[in-house]
Amino acid sequence: xxxxxxxYIYDNKPHTEMNQYPIGIQRNTILxxxxxxxxxxxxxxxxxxxxxxxxxxxxxxxxxxxDVLKSPIYPTNSKVGRQIAxxxxxxxxxxxxxxxxxxxxxIYQMDDREEAKLNAFKDKELEKGIVIKPLNLSLGKGVFVNxxxxxxxxHWNQCVKIMKKMAVQKKMA
Length: 173
Fold this sequence. Notes:
The protein is about 40% helix and about 15% strand.
C-alpha cells in the first residue's frame, strides 16, 4: 500500500470508535470452524502446521475425507509484507520509516508490571491513557485502551491472565 493510500484511508475513514468484543470470543476463522464442527459433532481432524497455523480435514460418517481447510494466505501479499504485518514492532518501525505517526512501544515480561508502569507514565502527555497489549496474541485479544495510572494494575493483570489462558489453550490444542 502506498503512503498516499494509507493517508487517504486515515483521513476519510472515521476512527473515533473502537470495535467492542466480549472477552473470550473466538475471532480466528479456522478456530471458529473447529468450534462449530465440535459443537455440532461433525467428524474432522485438526493438524498443526508451521507457526501455529492449523488445517482441518473434514470427514464423512464413514471416516473418508471430504476436503481440507487451511488458514488463508492471500497470494497477493508478499512474504516480506506478511512478516512485517504480523509483527507489531516491525510494523511500527516501517510506519516510522515512512514518516507516519505511530506508537512508541516497549516490550515487557509478564512480571515487569512495576517497571512498565513507571516507564509508561514518565511523559505527562501519556497520563491521559496508554494501550496495553500482548505481543503474542492477535485480533484484539488482551488489548486494553485508555489505561491510566489509576487502572494500570487492573488492566495489566487482566492482560496477563488472558495470555496465560491462551498459552494453556495452545498447549492443549
